[in-house]
UniProtKB/TrEMBL annotation:
Protein name, UniProt field: Uncharacterized protein LOC108808179
InterPro entries noted in UniProt: RVT-Znf
Protein species of origin: Raphanus sativus (Radish)
Domain Reverse transcriptase zinc-binding: 11-77
Superkingdom: Eukaryota
Gene name of the record: LOC108808179
């Protein structure tokens, strides 16, 4: 059975048109392009030998795992103000998951969805993973969501 993948062109357009900072747009572009330096990508490029997730240790660390499938990320999404994907199960496809979170306003047009928060939440999950790996700092789930909200608000209110 072949599953259809979302249009990468549409995802790139959404990333570059997101109401967020240039660094977060670049981060989204790197996610879509599969160029973030996660353990799985580092092993493929012969830079590292272990592709296991630094946080949970139970799966290979790819971008999709870090942002959506790692138990840490899953708890963040579960406590966030966003709807989970159908049946509450994140896809094995990074692009499908990105399409879901970047299109919540289209999926739920009758609700008020703070779509501007999504890129910042993805950014915070990524930043937290790096701080966990490199300095051993582990952030609380709710603190992560609050920090993403703070980041989004600061960006919206900049002069």
């Amino acid at each position: 059975m072949v599953s259809s993948q979302p249009s990468l062109d549409a995802l790139y357009q959404q990333a570059w048109s997101a109401n967020t900072s240039p660094k977060v747009k670049h981060f989204l572009w790197r996610c879509i392009s599969n160029t973030l330096p996660v353990a799985g990508n580092m092993v493929k490029r012969y830079i590292a030998k272990d592709s296991s997730c630094s946080r949970c240790g139970g799966s290979e660390e790819y971008i999709n795992h870090v942002l959506f499938q790692c138990p840490y990320a899953r708890r963040i999404w579960a406590d966030s103000p966003f709807h989970p994907p159908p049946f509450g199960i994140w896809s094995a496809s990074l692009h499908t998951n990105l399409q879901w979170v970047l299109n919540l306003t289209k999926e739920f047009p009758e609700e008020i969805v703070d779509a501007d928060l999504v890129p910042w939440l993805l950014w915070r999950i990524w930043k937290n993973m790096n701080e966990f790996i490199f300095i051993g700092k582990d952030y609380d789930i709710l603190a992560t969501i609050d920090k993403a909200k703070e980041d989004a608000t600061k960006w919206k209110n900049r002069e």
